[in-house]
Amino acid sequence: MIYEGKAITVKEIDGAIARLDFDLQGESVNKLNRQTLEELREATDALAARSDLKGLVITSSKDSFIVGADITEFTGLFAGPEEDIIASTKKANDIFNDIEDLPFPTVTAINGIALGGGCELALSTDYRVMATKAKIGLPEVKLGIFPGFGGTVRLSRLVGVDNAVEWIAGGTENRADAAFKVGAVDSVVEADKLLEAAVAIINQCNDGKLDNQARREEKKGKIKLNAMESMMAFEISKAFVAGKAGKNYPAPVEAIKTMQKHAGMTRDKAIEVEAKGFAKMAKTNVAACLVGLFLNDQALKKKASAWEKEASKVNLAAVLGAGIMGGGVAYQSALKGTPILMKDINQDGINLGLKEAKKQLVKRVDKGKMDAGQMADVLNQITPTLNYGDFKNVDLVVEAVVENPKVKDAVLRETEDAVRDDTILTSNTSTISINKLAANLKRPENFCGMHFFNPVHMMPLVEVIRGEKTSDRAIATTVAYAKAMGKTPIVVNDCPGFLVNRVLFPYFGGFIGLVRDGADFQHVDKVMEKFGWPMGPAYLLDVVGMDTGKHAGEVMAEGFPDRMKHDGQTAIDVMFENNRYGQKNDVGFYKYELDKKGKQKKVVDEETYKLLEPVVQGKKEFDEEDIIARMMIPLCLETVRCLEDGIVEDPADADMGLIYGIGFPPFRGGALRYIDDMGVDKFVELADKYADLGALYHPTDKLRDMAKNGETFFG
């Protein structure tokens, strides 16, 4: 044994070749945490001290290779000065450089996922062999940073500027065939042939058939472009990526600028440039928010995994109501491997549900994600029915009928009589109280909410809503089924609108108030889109549907009349009363026309302004800060109330629900992190400036106490 630690072992295998193996004890994956890097330092020193070795193969004993750095260590590091961040990256880079400079050929055998630092480690060796099903990439831009362990330096010299920009600025995870095509890896083999292939490369180097020193010097040298070629490659890339990423996500463009700066430098100087650029990005608020978002997501996954241990197995599901939503649920369930019955009261509904499922499957075939045979297999997992004949075999039911409490009550009671005593019943209601829907059920302990967001196949969130009598088994089984469908479940307690809609409608309330006070709805949309929302509030209402918006708004007004009930007619009422439902019938605040690809695009409709005149109190110009404040304060305060009322368990759940459910700008981290970043005291001061607008703008007593005590939501 050359070296033995708790994350790394190094031993000699046949032919005086060393095998450095990653197998981090106590973890399901390998990651480059402090312990692993310390051991890698020691292992590298031990290898450099051996004069008798003929080569090195780096492997992993886990299913993945190395998933990257330990993100949990970023928060403390990034909070410190830039000098400390640079010093930290230097330690890792010194190790990777020493691996690159070892006096014998080196090969990395990539058996599974090799991301971030894992990919950068692989780039430090002379060659890379990759398993057919493995993936490799540098996704750091998704955390608001870019590679800091030599990734921008080595990859740009190995695969060329264009390919390096695509990998780094896009944060892509690349399959083995794509990595081989651009030259990021040298061979692709089946997983059980990796070690053999790696040893073969080392033997070829020692036999003089491969020149590993030439390969090494290429990576350590300058980018092979003349001044004009370099300028063209980088300037075009910056312009394209800036247009795609937008100003709210600076890391992709900064990565390109960094590559441009070090293009004419050799390795050691180039890595210094990279380290400074990395530290600069690490200190941005965007990085803080996106790292926080990643950690929140991990915490959410752990909660879901804990629930799964208590879950009953869902071998067969059913969905009631085979419209667009029901068809979407059936498609998602079948796609992810859980057979599902799709019931409706008439054949037209069945046809609509099947049409929705087929539409999504055809898109996958057109994109090359599946073939016609696989599409047929998925469709065969959906069994349409007009009766309850097979419901005794169903483990979980999703009720997705019309959003009407009387209809839902009747359907749920009827279904309860048709299923087994242990079957879990769920309702896809977006606003109706779970306690209310459970009132007439015989087994309310088996009932909870399972709120999907439209379109089902795209939206990652599922709210699992606990009623007063809901059992842990019902919650656990519903969470497990949501996960099996590829969704992110968040468990919330019952209240009007639950979490997402309860928070969304105060945001719409801010919009209604702005329109009433003379703001141009198009201007409001542009400001909020610039702020980071995927669409402004008027556009979002058109997408949601004005009929849905009006109904949900009435439920919210009944539940929280002090702040969500509106006096007189609102802009939403005007749109609804004039049958302007939005994209559903091609006219709402905007008109909708089909573009060349057959997709709806919004166009300005001057008629909207005429219709709104009765609810507008004269035109008024609002600046951006005023619009943002009037829109965001109600949303943030309602999120605070949801936390205080125990609707969500913790701040992370609240923020993730808004990001996954309504597209809250990820780079801002969520509503509660947004308050933290502003400062709780500053946020309360801002809200107080708008106190005359009503209860939507009044901070809670607890929030005022937090402001006085200097407390934050995330510490």
UniProtKB/TrEMBL annotation:
GO MF: 3-hydroxybutyryl-CoA epimerase activity; delta(3)-delta(2)-enoyl-CoA isomerase activity; enoyl-CoA hydratase activity; long-chain (3S)-3-hydroxyacyl-CoA dehydrogenase (NAD+) activity; NAD+ binding
Enzyme Commission (EC) number: 4.2.1.17
GO CC annotation terms, alphabetical: fatty acid beta-oxidation multienzyme complex
UniProt record, GO biological process: fatty acid beta-oxidation
Annotated metabolic or biological route of this protein: Lipid metabolism; fatty acid beta-oxidation
InterPro entries: 3-OHacyl-CoA_DH_CS (IPR006180), 3-OHacyl-CoA_DH_NAD-bd (IPR006176), 3HC_DH_C (IPR006108), 6-PGluconate_DH-like_C_sf (IPR008927), ClpP/crotonase-like_dom_sf (IPR029045), Enoyl-CoA_hyd/isom_CS (IPR018376), Enoyl-CoA_hydra/iso (IPR001753), FA_oxidation_alpha_subunit (IPR050136)
Swiss-Prot/TrEMBL catalytic activity: a (3S)-3-hydroxyacyl-CoA + NAD(+) = a 3-oxoacyl-CoA + NADH + H(+)
Superkingdom assignment: Bacteria
Residues in 3-hydroxyacyl-CoA dehydrogenase NAD binding domain copies: 317-495
The keyword Lyase is annotated on this UniProt entry: yes
Key word Isomerase present: yes
NCBIfam families according to UniProt: FadB (TIGR02437), PRK11730.1 (NF008727)
Family designation: Belongs to the enoyl-CoA hydratase/isomerase family. In the N-terminal section; belongs to the enoyl-CoA hydratase/isomerase family.
Name of the protein: enoyl-CoA hydratase
Provenance organism: Marinobacter persicus
